[in-house]
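Sample log: Coproporphyrinogen-III oxidase.
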Amino acid sequence: MSEHLIWDPLMIQRYNTAGPRYTSFPTAVEFRNVDSDQLERNALCTPSHTPLSLYLHIPFCTHVCYYCGCNKIVTKNKGRSIPYLEHLKTEIRMKHALLGGSRSVEQLHLGGGTPTFLSDDQLTDLMEFLRNLFTFSTAETADYSIEIDPRELRPNTLKRLRELGFNRLSYGVQDLDERVQAAVNRVQPESMIRAVMIEARELGFRSINIDLIYGLPHQSVESFDKTLDAIIDMRPDRLSIFNYAHLPQRFMPQRRISEDDLPSAQEKLQIFGHAISKLDDAGYHYVGMDHFALPDDELAIAQRDGKLHRNFQGYTTHGDCDLIGFGVSSISQVGDLYSQNAVSLEDWQEALENGGLPLSKACKTNADDRLRRDIIMGLLCHLDIRFNELDQQHNIDSRTYLRQDLARLQPMCDDGLVNIDEHGVQITDSGRLLVRHACMAFDPYRQQDDQTRFSKAI
């Protein structure tokens, strides 16, 4: 894969429409309400030797970040985690019993919310509970990660997490500018970020990710440049630089952000363009979809080797696992079934108390969905799909089957963003930043869809 990115602001503006991030296909907006948990029970009970990826959603946050659109519960009452953990264990037991066998866990991720809202003893108890039920892989490639709010760490939390087997961390930083931090209610000094980075390195965490956001209030090219200087100096293994989508009508905390304080669309584009150039100069590889990694990081290596995947946890080296979600709003992907837990805490708890799985929505993929999923994931991860591989894997004549989809790509071909030849479809260096737009050409759900449900690509 080429390391060369071409930044063309005019072309980006032309194609920068709203669209899915494609952490699944079909996307979560296509999931439908269900009245029974039988679909998920059937999927979990199906015999399989596929390894497992476990996701646990911890929804609690002590502070509200005004930009956030995640499913969360903001509270300073630490006692609220106690009944939540009991219900979480109930769900884990139920799904483990349905899975049966001894399928190995190759990936674990604690997300939220703020997982370190839990005390060190609660985190220890939860991990011991999981290890008593599941067989965790001891391979060097096993990936056990947790999202960290640096403000919510006790003196020994990182040390305890390392002892519990976590080998990867993701720090939410967003921006280091004090004015920006105050405007989004996430004040955390640069010295704090440096301290937790140093400690994590000393403890031997294999990979560290930092999340940044561009498009926040009071940001400018100059202010974000200073943040990038500091972050590059800290040298995280991975960086995620997300586009802030201001949707106050959907996310109530965003109503505390004044639109007058947001950078203009033009400056927002310049901020991201400058970030790409600066990270390229610093030796970071552009993985795709706002994600960067050092060349020796597992994500970059997997992409070079053609083994990169994408799922609800973003880019991953473990996309061949069945993903089992636990906790309110979590999503699972088992075989051909996507399933999502109840989004409200009350509904999730009630289902478990009544002896059922807390399933709220589901989507069972058909043959056409699976074909298009392979195409979209191929483009997102490797910028390339091959007709002969699609023919063999799906028993079709793909060029004929996809005739209308390929025709929708013609404008991008004319603009030098996509190549189509007798072998397949390739995203060019000029088109890498607009790969989401190319994916949408193969997405029948998007052809007559309300795109306001999605953020713009950049």
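Observation: The two ends are 22 Å apart (CA to CA).
Observation: The chain has two domains: 1-26+366-458, 28-324.
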